[in-house]
UniProtKB/TrEMBL annotation:
Coiled coil: none
Designated name of the protein: ATP phosphoribosyltransferase
Keywords associated with the record: Amino-acid biosynthesis, ATP-binding, Cytoplasm, Glycosyltransferase, Histidine biosynthesis, Magnesium, Metal-binding, Nucleotide-binding, Transferase
Location of the ATP phosphoribosyltransferase catalytic domain: 49-202
GO terms for MF: ATP binding; ATP phosphoribosyltransferase activity; magnesium ion binding
Keyword Iron-sulfur belongs to the record: no
Pathway as given in its UniProt record: Amino-acid biosynthesis; L-histidine biosynthesis; L-histidine from 5-phospho-alpha-D-ribose 1-diphosphate: step 1/9
Amino acid sequence: MLRLAIQKSGRLSDDSLNLIRECGISFINSSLKLKTACTNFPLEILFLRDDDIPGYVADGVADIGIVGQNVLVEEGKQELTVEALGFSKCRLSLAVPKSADYNSISDLNGKNIATSYPNLLQAFLDEQGVQAHIHTISGSVEIAPSIGLAEAICDIVSSGSTLISNGLKEVERVFKSEAVLIANQELPQEKREILEKLLFRVHAVQRARK
Ligand code: PRT
Ligand code: ZN
């Protein structure tokens, strides 16, 4: 039996479960359960916080998982990637107050930037030759400028409406992300064979969606 870790509740959950269902795999989904065994395919589903999924897959607690590339790369686990899944598309962007005079990335030198993605941001700033102070906070990043915590933020953007409603403007794109399927790198042969069967179905679903 292959163990798949997916997000318990959040922006990845519905599309992850729909993909499994479209693969013709049946399971009983109770919002109270932390795991469920599929009834017609050798798959068990674990429901976890998205941030815990790369670690669990790397450690072999789960064999495979579905997570955003933003979380995977932030945690330094991109080597687990099997393939991109085409949903939960978003970007990690830098934003400043709408009224700020912003001309180029060098305007961020010496500034305070609030983010939940310090590693992705640091790599981008290094690549751009910018030195700034990164303040790592776990949520409500978009209010940091209005409470005086930072002059800029680096956060996930999808439609852009959260930035606008907080009086911010997007100035740089740091990282492009979508959901990816990840796998433990030392799967035993029989689990690899189940993964191959699952991937065969995933590819058929993706072809049918096009
Ligand atoms: O509880 P748990 O830790 O599992 O969930 P979470 O709250 O950490 O994650 P969740 O469910 O918010 O997001 C899961 C994944 O979905 C992210 O890691 C991204 O890969 C992807 N994703 C896609 C997004 C968005 N779109 C998104 N719009 N993640 C977050 N947002 C947030 C963003 O942080 C900002 O607050 O939505 C707001 C911006 O949205 P727009 O449309 O107003 O621009
Ligand atoms: Zn999370």
